[in-house]
Amino acid sequence: MPHLQRRLIAKLARASKTGLISVPAAARAMNTTRSAAALRLGQFTRQGWLHRARRGLYLVLPLEAEPGQKPAAEDPWVLAREVFAPGYIGGWSAAEHWGLTEQIFRSTLVVTAAAVRATKVEILGHPFRVFRVPRSRLTAGVVMAWRGAERVGVSGLERTIIDLLRDPELCGGVRHLVQILRAYGESPKHDFERLATIGRQTASGAAWKRLGYLAELLWPNETRLPAAARRQMTTGNARLDPAVRRPGKLVTRWRLLVNVDVSEFESRPDTP
Question: What fold, for 3-60?
């Protein structure tokens, strides 16, 4: 590699975020215009020094990389931040982050307001499950988590719960949701008052119905959540698991069609 090219690649590597470099960041690193930077990045890609992750985003390959070696980003969370902005890590990935589940998911789940076409995509060796929402749903209850030297947005503990109640498919269905709720209730970090607060900011009517029903099932001594859920009741009936087609039995108190059996998770008094 010529000396100038080596220097430019080194600059790009230093300016990258876990190996990822955008056209604007490359322009700043090389002290040039965006159009000139884009041309240079394209040249380096054709020469095998970079790999195009998507339009405007590149992976700086290690100088010691073997020819034909499949490129892979270091951290899927940082990659998701760069590719799917604006958005955050949510669903089952957030549940794993907060220790609410021991189930292993292959894909990283991303909640985004970006204009994405596919809900399942693999980028630089990392599979993603992408869930699109309006931009207005991207703020309340989202926190920043450190990933090495980088910070990435992730749904906070209570926002994760509300997201899953609103869209159970974000954790693979209601049965897994109930397990996550039970883990949340057993966690010393649980905060039912904050859960209700985040719910008032982001929950749907169906989410409140699921929360009220499942709170009474799992935490019979907790009265604040069912009371809050009753105040937020909407008209019409919702399904406990919207992905299950059968209607189920209607629980009129919560206007909820219980179409999945979760009775095994019901809280029961300890017996001698």
Answer: Arc Repressor Mutant, subunit A (1.10.10)
